[in-house]
Design goal:
Blueprint: E1 2-6, H1 13-22, E2 26-31, H2 34-41, H3 53-64, E3 68-72, H4 78-86, E4 105-108, H5 115-118, H6 122-146, E5 151-157, E6 172-177, E7 180-185, H7 193-212, E8 215-221, E9 224-225, H8 251-260, E10 265-268, E11 274-279, H9 280-292, E12 300-305, E13 308-311, H10 312-325, E14 332-335, H11 353-356, H12 366-378
Parallel strand pairs: 1-2, 1-4, 2-3, 4-5, 5-8, 8-12, 9-11, 10-14
Antiparallel strand pairs: 6-7, 11-13
């Protein structure tokens, strides 16, 4: 099948490209290096150097004999987006520059992914809204006009739901009101401009699905951790880029790097914040199983993409235990919470849907953490502790 991956240079986009390519699919990736440029903009950094997207594709081809076509372009430009479907594309790197044809499935990762970045100031908030919503709208209209049967897999976020004092269902809620019943998208209450943009993504697509019978699977993803995937083991240069800073680094990734750097783990406030997490390898599995069992025309299918829930304190304790076993003097510090969020709350999301279509979860075990630590330790000299807390507040 032809798989089109928007945001194919990203932490999840590039591993997804290799995952689909390794299974025999024709893969085209598109990116404008937004994440790389944003890291330069806010003085963040990667744990290790990452080759350019065309160079990654060349390394993958040399290692496997498989082609991943690369297009460097800005998808917030509507004509650029439409060119991916009309054939008016210019490949930045490809073995065969003939148009691959309309995509069977589109993976939509092409968005600014950080809540702290979206609240640095009004300018970054505007960048987040403009990039995320215009790109999503461009995609919706291009699919409507050129490929209405194409299945879109969109990466949403569990942060759209907030922390309501009721169980979080998988995207939908059945309501009975004054003797009548109906089904609505589960109420959402975002805690950042980024999460607000993701809510609006879902609303845009839901409009297109109701109006034009488009088909989409929305994966409401929790924070992802990890570095290595099965595909990246063929050459370490194929590992996804890895942030550990306050702005782009997710909490488990940040804690492991802090441990190796002998920096106290930065637990925000009381540390009772509870979220759902998953291994980067499970992200790939979830996306692929969604591809194998697509939504129907006119269907917005929603899965909560997590494998287990933890409080921040529980994560800190696990990382501290494994780090100590590896000889790191790991301390845990509770710092003033820079975010407006409940630090103790009810949290009980449903997340059985993906298992129902064949996903086998990989839990956060000590063995998983040991493997994670080993890779970070290889790059200890690159760690910049000043990136752990950059003072973003809201």
């Amino acid at each position: 099948m032809h798989i089109l991956i928007l945001g194919g240079d990203g932490y999840l986009g590039w591993p997804s490209a290799m995952y689909f390519s390794a299974r025999g699919h024709q893969v085209t990736v598109v990116d404008n290096y937004f994440r790389r440029k944003a890291c330069i903009d806010v003085d963040a950094d990667f744990l290790y150097p990452v080759p350019s997207l065309p160079e990654r594709a060349r390394i993958w081809h040399k290692a496997t004999g498989r082609e991943i076509k690369v297009i460097l372009a800005d998808l917030s430009d509507s004509e650029t987006m439409r060119g991916l479907f009309s054939g008016a594309v210019r490949y930045t790197w490809a073995l065969d520059e003939r148009f691959t044809g309309l995509p069977h499935t589109i993976l939509h990762y092409a968005e600014q992914p950080s809540a702290p970045y979206s609240l640095l100031d009004y300018r970054r908030a505007n960048i987040t809204l403009a990039n995320n919503l215009i790109t999503t709208n461009n995609l919706m209209f291009a699919v409507k006009d050129f490929a209405p049967d194409t299945h879109i897999i969109h990466i949403g976020t569990m942060g759209e739901y907030g922390t309501p004092n009721i169980d979080i269902e998988e995207g939908w809620l059945d309501i009975e009101h004054k003797g009548r019943r109906d089904r609505f998208l589960f109420p959402r209450q975002a805690s950042s401009i980024y999460h607000t943009s993701k809510i609006m993504d879902t609303d845009l697509f839901w409009f297109g699905i109701r109006t034009w019978k488009l088909r989409m699977t929305d994966l409401m993803q929790g924070p992802v951790y990890g570095i290595e995937t099965e595909e990246s083991r063929v050459d370490e240069r194929l590992r996804p880029y890895f942030n550990y800073d306050e702005i782009f680094g997710t909490v488990i990734n940040r804690f492991v790097v802090q441990s190796v750097a002998r920096h106290p783990l930065t637990v925000y406030g009381k540390g009772g914040q509870t979220r759902g997490y998953l291994n980067i390898c499970d992200t790939l599995q979830c996306v692929y199983k969604s591809f194998e069992t697509p939504a129907n025309p006119g269907e917005l299918r929603i899965f909560n993409q997590i494998t287990e829930t933890f409080t921040v304190n529980e994560l800190a304790e696990r990382v501290q235990r494994v780090g100590t076993e590896r000889g790191h003097a790991v301390q845990v510090n509770h710092v003033e919470n820079p975010r407006k969020e409940a630090e103790e709350h009810y949290y009980n999301p449903a997340y059985q849907g993906l298992q129902g279509i064949g996903v086998t979860p990989h839990p956060l075990t000590d063995d998983v953490l040991h493997g994670f630590f080993a890779i970070v330790e290889e790059h200890k000299a690159n760690i910049k502790p000043e990136l752990f807390l950059k003072g973003v507040r809201w």
